[in-house]
Design a protein that fits this description.
Strand content: 25-35%
CATH architecture of one domain: Roll
Number of helices: 8
Order of helices and strands: EEEEEEEEEHEEEEHHEEHHHHH
Distance between the termini: 30 Å
Helix content: 25-40%
CATH superfamily of one domain: PRC-barrel domain
Number of strands: 15
Largest sheet: 8 strands, mixed
Radius of gyration: 19 Å
Length: 238
């Protein structure tokens, strides 16, 4: 299993061994079963798009571009114009709060976990919500190794970042659309009120009536705060 934090800021080399730049973020496609689509690289004080087929090796010690690859400058492909069903792991998941639906709790993501899928692709399989990754990012690697990870499976997560929440509502296969009324009540009780109201708008009439039959939850949906509790992670150019 691969940890996102090990690759953020990692050096990227050309096929001849020359240093090209470093990893800034990872683009994935599909919110239900996210597959790595591209890397965002930082080189020459600019951001670049490196599609996954342009990566020859993606290892802990070596990220190498395929021969004759020329990444696309993101001025020509603005980050705000991601394709449908695409999001960014650093911007939209790392350090944001998620809802662990199975555990009916709110947790903050300290790392994103990936694993090898078919045809050489990488798939997002879960997140770490423990402190081990935080300690490692602070340089306390030895202490971090003594602390076990607290892993939440991707299939049990509801994202609360702007982009993640938007994509999960739009994807009929996402977790939020598979929950029964009882599970939805738990989710709507902990998700930010603005997000809860958006989820309610996507429910059928029968499920909506079942959810609103709970007077406490109904009151929260009507009177709850209009503020969201995740921090927005806007892109900024170095």
């Amino acid at each position: 299993m691969l940890e996102l934090n090990r690759y953020l800021g990692a050096p990227i080399h050309r096929s001849d061994g020359q240093l090209w730049g470093k990893v800034e973020d990872v683009v994935v496609t599909g919110v239900s079963h996210p597959l790595v689509h591209a890397l965002i690289g930082h080189a020459d004080h600019r951001l670049w798009l490196i599609t996954w087929d342009q990566v020859e090796r993606f290892e802990r010690t070596s990220i190498v571009l395929a021969t004759s690859v020329e990444p696309t400058a993101l001025e020509a492909r603005p980050l705000e114009e991601l394709q449908q069903a695409q999001f960014l792991l650093k911007r939209d998941v790392l350090d944001t709060q998620i809802i662990d639906v199975a555990g009916t709790r709110v947790a903050r993501v300290s790392d994103v976990l990936l694993d090898h899928a078919h045809a050489g692709q990488l798939e997002v399989v879960g997140v770490d919500v423990g402190v081990a990754s935080v300690l490692a990012r602070l340089g306390l690697h030895r202490l971090g190794r003594k602390v076990p990870q607290k892993v939440v499976r991707w299939s049990d997560i509801h994202l609360t970042s702007d982009r993640g929440h938007e994509l999960q509502l739009a994807d009929e296969n996402a977790l939020v659309h598979t929950l029964n009324a009882a599970a939805l009540k738990h989710l709507l009780a902990v998700v930010p009120a603005p997000d809860a109201r958006q989820i309610l708008d996507h429910l059928d009439d029968q499920t909506t009536q079942a959810v609103l039959a709970d007077p406490t939850l109904a009151r929260r949906l009507v009177l709850g705060s209009r503020r969201r509790f995740t921090r927005l992670q806007p892109w900024h150019r170095p």
